[in-house]
């Protein structure tokens, strides 16, 4: 008899050829993110602008670290995790300069608000060596199929094997219990600059030696 079970998530390393697909998935995934909705209040242009932002971050920051992974139930990208290795989470000045023009074109007048928010988050980034989950997102039509969990386990299993912690910031309060199931704990609820900007939850995970 034919099986009607869902195909298992396939997780793989992502490269430059995946940048456009990942950016599009993340642009849709973060359309309802509270902080990004505050930074980009215009509903009509938000997904397009977010797709542009994630494309810039992938090309100028994350892909070169070779920690980005994509997942799907088939060959198509349906979810992605942008990880930065220990010691490489801070964006170097050269990369900041390279992405300044594209970000200005993408975010327009919201650049100062975005930079203030990102700067506040960076100020509280822990100095200890760790893997940094900068972004995790699943295309809304594919949510609920275990893709995010498969991406988390892929890297966290290696963190445990290497004895390395992991760190993330959650800008959605309802995602906090989800991350807690993978061993993360809230270290701080961070109030953000700017009138009406929602808070962000800083979360740390010690390696599991069990």
Plain-language structure description:
The chain has 210 residues and is an alpha+beta fold. It has seven helices and seven strands. It has helices at residues 19-29, 34-39, 43-62, 93-107, 111-123, 147-162, 176-180, and strands at residues 10-13, 69-72, 79-84, 131-138, 166-170, 185-190, 200-205. Strands 1-2-3-4-5-7-6 form a seven-stranded mixed β-sheet. Helix 1 (19-29) crosses helix 3 (43-62) and helix 3 (43-62) runs antiparallel to helix 4. The radius of gyration is 17 Å and the shape is globular. The model has no long low-confidence stretch (mean pLDDT 91).
Question: Helical stretch count?
Answer: 7
Mean of residue pLDDT values: 91
Terminal Cα span: 40 Å
Describe the strand arrangement of the main beta sheet, using strand numbers.
Answer: 1-2-3-4-5-7-6
Q: What would you call the structural class?
A: alpha+beta
Q: State the low-pLDDT regions, or none.
A: none
Beta-strand content bin = 15-25%
Which percent bin holds the helix content?
A: 40-55%
- Output the helix-strand order: EHHHEEHHEHEHEE
Q: What is the tally of beta strands?
A: 7
Shape: globular
Organism: Actinomadura nitritigenes
Pfam families: Acetyltransf_1
Domain N-acetyltransferase: 61-208
Protein name: GNAT family N-acetyltransferase
